Amino acid sequence: MISRRTLHPARQGAITLLMVALASCVAPQQKPAPAPRPAPPPPPAALPAAPPQQDWRDVPLTPGDWSWRGTAGQSSIAQYGMAGQTAVFAVRCDLASRNIVFSRGGLASTQTAAMSFTTSYGSFAFTGTNGGGQPPAIVAQASARDPHMDQIAFSRGRFLVNVAGQPQLVLPSWPEVARVIEDCRG
Questions:
Q1: Count of CB atoms within 10 A of residue 104's CB?
Q2: 5 found inside a domain
Q3: In the structure, what pLDDT confidence band is assigned to residue 69 with cuts at 50, 70 and 90?
């Protein structure tokens, strides 16, 4: 038979071993959770959308009407503007040189400036200069036989005239312009 004395130390060892095992199962101390990161700044306010580009053929016409004066076979001029006011654009025949002279109100910011035209056939430009006079005008010229003259005369419904630093002119293609060109071609 087994004595109580011999069983007791074995039991005591098993209990100690069990306590050590249980002590090793204790979860380690947890580190404190890191502080939450600050929220990212809100995105910058969105800029308003750019207005859609408008087709030049849909831009309203510059206010005014064409008028023509001259004598067939001699110098003639077509002017565009509001009745009773200075014309904003003119097409004149210089019969001596057979050149078409374009003039628009305003002053170019440089000695020379491109006077550009947009027609239903395409775009092109002539060199313009400050023409002097009162009121001041920017002047460009081209031969009456230049094919661009037909593009201006026969543009579908309208043509544009642009000079940097000046308001854009949207002018109707009326017969007065074609008449000046034809008078100049003689």
A1: 24
A2: no
A3: very high
**CATH (domain of 99):** 2.60.40
Q: How confident is the model at residue 19 (pLDDT cuts 50, 70, 90)?
A: low
- Domain carrying residue 144: 59-185
Count of structural domains within the chain:
1
Amino acid at 127: T
Residue 58, pLDDT score = 86
